[in-house]
Amino acid sequence: MTRATESATVDRDDDSDEDLGDSARAVTKGLFLAALALLVVAGITVTIALTTGGSSASRRPSQTFSYVIPKGTGAQVDLGNIPANLFPEYLEVQRGDTIVIRNDDARSHILGPFSVRSGETFTYVMEQIGSYRGQCTVHGSGHEAVVRVLDAIAPAAG
Asked: Mind listing the pLDDT tens digit for each residue in 12-42?
């Protein structure tokens, strides 16, 4: 009978070990699920940051692009002398950048999407992403100027 008791005691000890093993597995499973949930939340946060442009720290500072149309430009264009580098035929800026055009000429000029009267300074902050095109009177007859506005996210380091 002692043997049966010992056997029963041994069986009880084995059951206790199994209960302990089940508890350890339950704790491990809980920790795994908590870590998995944390990774999912971190992944969603990174995805949101990337698709919305991240924080303002990831954006480059706004820039100002300034151009001057000198006195006599219209007369030079009429003679076929196209002034160099007054305004680019293709200009790529980022959202939030400012374009400033000062017209010192005796006539009004159109530079792509912008029209600047004689003696005036035109200032415009580019807020809408897209491409804007139009005639350009400082490039001669039939020429266009295109201004492309991109999102203002700085390139990734690396």
From this structure: 445 555 555 777 777 677 666 666 666 655 5
Cα dist from 17 to 10, 14, 21, 28, whole Å: 11, 5, 6, 16
Query: CA 3, CA 23: separation in Å to the nearest integer?
Result: 30
Whole-model pTM? 0.60
SS3 breakdown of the chain: % helix, strand, coil, rounded to 5? 35, 30, 35
The encoded tokens of residue 93 equal: 């800026």
Tokens of 34: 């908590």
The conformational region for residue 96 under phi > 0 = left, psi -120 to 50 = alpha, else beta, is left
Q: What is the pLDDT of residues 70-90, one digit of tens each?
A: 999 999 999 988 887 889 999
The CB-side HSE value for 18 (13 A sphere, CA atoms) comes to: 6
Q: Return d(Cα 137, Cα 78) in angstroms, integer.
A: 10
Phi, psi of 12, deg, nearest 5: -65, -40
